[in-house]
Design goal:
heterodimer, A: 260 residues, alpha+beta, Enolase-like, domain 1, 5-stranded antiparallel β-sheet, 4-stranded antiparallel β-sheet, 29% helix, globular, B: 156 residues, Ubiquitin-like (UB roll), 2 domains, 5-stranded mixed β-sheet, 15% strand, binds flavin-adenine dinucleotide, binds FE2/S2 (inorganic) cluster
């Protein structure tokens, strides 16, 4: 790793003031994506701002419509919440025990790995990302591989998850890395059916024709015959685009079966 | 920068470069080489220690992130010569061969034994996903952990 300075501010406002708008300074949450990148020298910031202990980012608020979870809650902490079972199960399936004890919700979203599990839940549930300056609907948050709607110095403070009527998640993991090759999150929300796919494209995306089919008939059988175009799907040594397209159909069906 | 933390119950103060990994602090500065370094990329789990009671990979954590925290390494698990029950179960079940993965396995096992209510094999295997063993195979390791969970519940 290149040398850097380490700051641990006491408040979110102080953290944002220290951040600046270039890549010389970076927020550090669990470090489970950032530290590997620093080791590979894919990034070489000169200042890291540790936000993992900020009280504003460690909150948990249950409200009538759902759950507002602080950005610095770990995957393990979210796995322990029973408010939205599909969200807890998803968080409990990320990486491994040690990664879940360190990695955070906000870090996963800001990093926007093409195979992020949390991205599938946030888009699938139609959650809202709250930052130090605004609220961003999930539909406008994930832009492309490692790209989000966040401004360089924008800090995710919390995520507001509306409680779905029912939701489920299914994935196939890469046996070596543990990341999903494809994961599909299905939810029946007050705003309608949502189907979000991770691992298959540049970043998480929705499938409108699957959503329409499930709105008519909320059963795995309703998806029979629906094909995902392979255009734009990831192809790599782990899976072809055709295989990923196939997995999307299979996993969407399993996610529907798991909905509760 | 200066950090203060507790390692195996004793207060530690150290002047470090901010880029120092927790694994490097433990191994190189404090001489606690029981924490092994298998990959340095977060894959193998040999470097697992506890920070505030939770298993983490010390090669994926800055020493600075452990400032003010309680760190437990494999050296702090036994009481003098008396092995911890989880260590005893590993020995009794032959859950180690070359021993390279063992410190990390035991640290993860301790987190799991505290967290799991039943000795369910699937849950134990899921909990061990971040620890690789190249020799013994996982069966005796899983059995040692299952035995420890049953013993803790008093029905072993
Ligand atoms: C071995 C291994 C296996 C893994 N397996 C999986 C898996 O199966 N599924 C999966 O989804 N993930 C997996 N991960 C990634 C893991 O979930 C990370 O925890 C997560 O991607 C990043 O969270 P973090 O808190 O560690 O963020 P960090 O690494 O600290 O930061 C990541 C990025 O987000 C920025 N950031 C962090 N917090 C904020 C915030 N509040 N506001 C704005 N920007 C912020 C940082 O500046 C940085 O650019 C794995 C990681 C490892 C090492
Ligand atoms: S040395 Fe840390 S996970 Fe391998
Ligand atoms: S006992 Fe040799 S690596 Fe596990």
């Amino acid at each position: 790793m290149h040398p850097f300075r380490y700051l641990r501010p006491e408040s979110a406002a102080e953290a944002v003031a220290a951040r600046g708008e270039d890549d010389e300074t970076r927020y550090l949450a669990g470090g489970q994506s950032l530290l590997p990148a620093l080791k590979l020298r894919l990034a070489h910031p000169s200042v890291l701002i540790d936000i993992a202990r900020l009280p504003e980012l460690r909150t948990l608020r249950r409200h009538q419509g759902g759950l507002e979870a602080g950005a610095a809650l770990t995957h393990a902490e979210i796995a322990g919440l029973d408010d939205i079972p599909a969200l807890a199960a998803l968080a409990g399936s990320i990486g491994d025990l040690q990664i879940r004890n360190m990695g955070t919700l906000g870090g996963s979203l800001a990093h926007n790995d093409p195979a992020s599990d949390h991205a599938a839940a946030v888009l699938g549930l139609g959650a809202t990302v709250r930052t130090d300056r605004r609220e961003i609907a999930a539909d406008g948050f994930f832009l492309d591989m490692f790209e989000t709607a966040l401004e360089p110095d924008e800090l995710i403070v919390s995520v507001n998850f509306p409680r779905p009527r029912r939701a489920g998640y299914a994935k196939v993991r890469n046996p070596a890395s543990g990341y999903p090759v494809v994961g599909v999150f299905v939810a029946e929300t007050d705003g309608g059916i949502r189907v979000a796919v991770t691992g298959a494209g540049g970043c998480v995306f929705r499938l409108p024709d699957f959503e329409a089919a499930l709105a008519d008939n909320f059963r795995p059988g309703a998806l029979a015959g629906l094909a995902t175009p392979v255009n734009g799907l990831n192809r790599d040594i782990h899976a072809t685009a055709e295989y990923r397209a196939h997995l999307i159909g299979v996993l969407a069906g399993r996610a529907v079966e798991r909905c509760r | 920068m200066r950090i203060r933390l507790t390692v195996n119950g004793a207060g530690v103060e150290a002047d470090i470069e901010p880029a120092t990994l927790l694994s490097a602090l433990l191994r190189e500065r404090l001489g606690l080489t029981g924490t092994h370094q298998g990959c340095d990329t977060g894959q193998c789990g040999a470097c697992t220690v506890h920070v505030d009671g939770r298993a983490v990979k010390s090669c994926l954590m800055l020493a600075a992130q452990a400032d003010g925290r309680r760190v437990l390494t494999i050296e702090g698990v036994a009481e003098g010569e008396a092995l911890h029950p989880v260590q005893r179960a590993f020995r009794d079940r032959h859950a180690l061969q070359c021993g390279f993965c063992t410190p990390g396995m035991v640290m993860t096992a301790l987190d799991l034994v505290g967290r799991l209510d039943t000795a369910d094999e699937g849950a134990i295997r899921h909990g061990l996903a971040g620890n690789l063993c190249r020799c013994t195979g996982y069966r005796p390791i899983v059995e040692a952990i299952a035995e420890s969970i049953r013993a803790r519940r008093g029905d072993g």
